[in-house]
Design a protein that fits this description.
Structural class: mainly alpha
Distance between the termini: 39 Å
Helix content: over 70%
Radius of gyration: 13 Å
Order of helices and strands: HHHHHH
Number of helices: 6
């Protein structure tokens, strides 16, 4: 848990320094997923999408596997990538 706290501290600092740094938002989602805080993890994925993360990037990211299994993931992807989502 101490490592997660430190990771969050560094990731928040990275976001503060560069609000468009997609990997910092995704990094926060990894930490939050490891804490089983899926709602917040998805919120950071959404922020990464708003900063121009692509669906291809998100689908290939092995660290997002647990989130991709959540029904909320599909809803989020449809919200931003409706034209690329297969029904």
């Amino acid at each position: 848990m101490g490592e997660n706290r430190l990771a969050k501290q560094y990731l928040f600092k990275a976001i503060e320094l560069d609000t468009n740094y997609i990997l910092a938002y995704l990094g926060m989602s990894y930490v939050l997923t490891s804490e089983h805080n899926f709602t917040e993890a998805l919120r950071f994925v959404e922020l990464a999408i708003q900063k121009k993360a692509t669906i291809e990037q998100l689908e290939k990211d092995e660290n997002l596997t647990a989130l991709r299994a959540k029904p909320e993931w599909t809803s989020l992807m449809k919200k931003y990538f409706a034209e690329k989502i297969k029904n």
